TrEMBL record:
Bilayer-spanning residue ranges: 49-67, 129-150, 156-175, 195-215, 227-248, 255-274, 280-298, 310-333, 339-358
CC annotations in GO: endomembrane system; membrane
Membrane topology label: Multi-pass membrane protein
Record localization: Endomembrane system
Keyword terms: Membrane, Transmembrane, Transmembrane helix, Transport
Transmembrane listed as a keyword: yes
Main location class: membrane
Protein name according to UniProt: Fucose permease
Pfam families (alphabetical): MFS_1
Alphabetized GO MF terms: transmembrane transporter activity
Listed PANTHER family: BYPASS OF STOP CODON PROTEIN 6 (PTHR23514:SF3)
Similarity field: Belongs to the major facilitator superfamily.
Length: 362
């Protein structure tokens, strides 16, 4: 990592991942303001989370068939989407902007993660952990940006658009194309469909709590400013848990870690539903931070590696991130968004049971 090109890649990637984290973390605090701005229910405004995830899934599929994806292009898509959201005259335009931000974010994740492994040599895997932790740094800053912008949608997303555009212009060059990636072994996938389902459930729960948690706190009587600050704490604990993976990954088997993380989500949501709202919501941030990494390692060990298999494993997570928040938004439209924490408990318990069942098959 001593070459100037490697240093440029690391610095630019760290800043880009922090920006992507900040953009995603803006959704939660934005939900009450979006509901007022577009005269819709908070549960309907939660569809912004679904739109982001749907865009990410589409972007990931695009990455599997389009070889021309570069860091510059991914960040340009984020800038375009955030700009649309800042200027959106209608709710439909706001959702379209979120789709673009989601697509750009997913493509950026694919590009930067791949380049770290390909260009940083033996230090690549360890640096990859730090790269994904920087997402958490940005996620801590995102709600604070919203507070600093006075709770305004246009200045918050406008700032993201400007920063993404600058980073796009400064993006380092791409990587020479390598040998074609092997196709996923579909037989192995079909023999282990439960693992992919666990990944989808885990990422869906993570995105639902991150995106709708602050709105649920507001509906349960908390001020919007205080809920935004608790959202920042949520992502602070999220970041601490991701950093802790540096030690946890070598000490706890991935499926056991996945089961424990789901169980901790259920415990935290139970406490929040019983009235310990802010602290319990913050604790859930640490639990959901471990879900995807534990799932990814377990699925890779069971199903195999390679670029296309990795894309399939990640795509399962994005599919869950699309389906779970969408279903939860519809459910909470009937129950009330304040029931978010209670409604998440059975999903988390199902995930814990599924991870333990998968581990028993070893």
């Amino acid at each position: 990592m001593s070459s100037p090109s490697a240093r440029a890649l690391v610095i630019h990637s760290f800043v880009a991942f922090a920006l992507v984290g900040a953009a995603q973390a803006l959704y939660g605090p934005s939900v009450p303001a979006l509901a007022r701005l577009h005269d819709i229910l908070p549960s309907q405004a939660g569809a912004i989370v679904w739109a982001h995830a749907a865009g990410g899934f589409a972007g990931l599929l695009l990455n599997m068939v389009w070889a021309g994806v570069t860091a510059r292009r991914t960040l340009a898509v984020v800038a375009l989407g955030a700009g649309v959201m800042a200027l959106a005259p209608s709710w439909a335009a706001m959702l379209a902007g979120a789709v673009l931000v989601g697509a750009g974010s997913a493509l950026a994740s694919a590009v930067f993660n791949r380049r770290f492994l390909e260009e940083l040599g033996d230090s690549g895997p360890r640096m990859l952990g730090l790269l994904n932790a920087l997402f958490g740094v940005g996620a801590v800053v995102g709600p604070l940006i919203f507070v600093a912008a006075g709770g305004g949608i246009a200045p918050a997303y406008g700032a993201v658009a400007v920063l993404a555009l600058i980073l796009s212009a400064l993006a380092p060059g791409g990587v020479p194309a390598g040998a074609p990636a092997a196709r996923p072994r579909l037989g192995a996938v079909l023999r282990r469909p439960g693992l992919l389902a666990l990944g989808g459930l885990g990422v869906g729960v993570e995105l639902t709590l991150a995106g709708l948690g602050p709105a649920a706190l507001v509906e349960r009587g908390m001020s919007e400013t205080r809920a935004a600050l608790w959202a920042a704490v949520f992502f602070g604990v999220f970041l601490a848990a991701r950093v802790a993976l540096w030690w946890l990954a070598d000490r706890i088997a991935p499926l056991r870690l996945l089961a424990a993380s789901f169980a901790l989500v259920a415990l935290a949501c139970g406490a929040a539903a019983l009235g310990v709202q802010g602290p319990a919501y913050a604790l859930s941030g640490g639990a959901v931070a471990l879900l995807f990494p534990a799932y990814f390692v377990a699925a890779t060990r069971r199903l195999g590696g390679g670029e296309r298999m990795a894309a399939l494993i990640v795509a399962a997570g994005y599919l869950g991130a699309t389906v779970v928040p969408g279903v939860m938004s519809l459910l909470l439209g009937r129950l009330g968004i304040e029931m978010l924490f209670a409604a998440t408990i059975p999903l988390a318990l199902l995930g814990a049971a599924g991870a333990l069942a998968a581990r028993a098959q070893d």
